[in-house]
Structure formats: C-alpha cells, structure tokens
Amino acid sequence: MNVEYHRWRSGNLNREMELKVYGHAGKPVLVFPAAGGRFYEYEDFGMVTACRPFLEGGRIVLFTVDSMDNESFLNHGAHPADRVRRHNEYDRYVVSEVVPFIRDRGFRRGILASGCSMGGYHSANFFFRHPDVFDAVIALSGVYQLGGFIGDYMDENVYFHVPLAYLPALSDPWYLDRYRKNRIVICVGQGAWEDEMVADTRALGRILAEKKIPAWVDFWGHDVNHDWPWWRKQMPYFLGELGY
Predict the structure, then answer these.
(1) What is the mean pLDDT of the chain?
(2) For residues 31 and 119, is the Cβ–Cβ distance under 8 A?
(3) Those residues with Cβ within 8 angstroms of residue 32's Cβ, 6 or more apart along the chain or in another chain
(4) What is the 3-state secondary structure (H, E, C) of 186-218?
(5) What is the pLDDT of residue 233?
C-alpha cells in the first residue's frame, strides 16, 4: 500500500503542519483526528488497517491531517473569541492549502470528509460550510455544537462553526441544493460516553429532515461505545454501503 508523509509551513497558521497519505487511487477522504489528535492517530488506532481493502483496491485514498484543537477550542486559557479565530485560520489552512494539495494529485472531484469524536464534528462542519469542496461526509460520534468547549459564548464567528445553530436558519439554495445532491452519513453509538453525541445527532437529524436534506442518520446499539473498536467497524461498513 502506498504511504506518504508530507510536511510544510502553513502560511495561514504560521507553523509547520504534517499529514499522511494512504492509498493510490479512488475517492479522496480527508480525515480529521479526534480532540487534539495528530495526523498519525488514524493509523495508530487501527483505522487505516480497517480500511485496507478499500485502500489496496484503489477505491479510496486517505489524507490524514493534524488538528489545531489545542490552540483553538481546547485552549481553555484563551478567550472563546480568540479560540474561534484560531479555528478560522485552521479552516483556511484546510481549504486553501490541504485541498489544493489533494487537487494537485489529480483528484478533481469532491472530497469525502470523515472523522471520529471531535473529528466527527470537524468533518460535518467542514462539509456543511464547504459543500462545493466536500460532496460526502461520514461523521462518527460527533458533537455538533461547541457548548462543551466554550460554554454559552456566542459571536458571529462561533455561530458559523455550530451546525446546530447555523443550519436551522439556512435558506440559501446554493448550499441547500448541494447538500441535497451530496452524501451524508451521521452515525453514533448508544453505549458508554455517547450521551451528548446521541443528543446532538438526533438534533442534527431533525434539522436535516426539516430541510428535506437526505441523510443517513444511524444510531447503533446500546453496547456501542464512544471508542475506537466501534469506529473501526463503522468506517469500513459505511464505505462499503456507499459503494466505495
């Protein structure tokens, strides 16, 4: 299996950023790590191995990026306004640096966003904010609001990073038409450590249904915990069901 390591200094973040590439052909999948995670997390926790048949078969290519959570939403020593400004810089890094990196490798069509836990939040948020870039999402065990990280603070920047806030009021057909053509999977277990994620997933599912946006909102069993062994089962399952 083709595996590559890449590093460059991000102009948007003013720091070195790293990523890895797995696979040689197929659907490009941009993977966001869990809270504060690194680009090698997906491999370390067995997710790359779980996706191996899709990688070796030329059906997907994984691009696993670093997070900036420790400098943004998890930076509890900073004001929430400063934290979300740092996240806006991460948004620009992904869209104006990582996405062109993927495009330059010959992947001209839409990208699938994915991640687990905090990565599930990031994948959904990037998908909904940039439906011209991402045409599919597999979000596993995500939260879709930021109260657990920044409390009740809200400003315009925070608002546009909270899917449960900005989606209900969204009426722009440019976004809605793209959502309706794209492929959406939102999944959560109902076991240990999933209560907050279950509530957010239900809320997101209701919003998408009200907007007539087709989505596969899937609740797994009460034995399905917020943990890597289940995400290793879920990711290849959904890749297969989506036909990749």
Answers:
(1) 97
(2) yes
(3) 65, 67, 113, 114, 115, 118, 119, 122, 123, 126
(4) EEECCCCCCHHHHHHHHHHHHHHHHCCCCCEEE
(5) 98
Sign of CA dihedral 120, 125, 131, 133: negative
For residue range 46-77, list pLDDT tens digits in order: 999 999 999 999 999 999 999 999 999 999 99
Give CA–CA dist 46/234, Å, rounded.
Answer: 12
Name the token pair of 65: 């990026």
Note the pTM of the prediction, 2 decimals: 0.97
CATH number of 3-241: 3.40.50.1820
Residue 199 identity (one-letter amino acid): A
Neighbours of 219 (CB within 10 A): 16
> Residue 108's pLDDT is what?
83
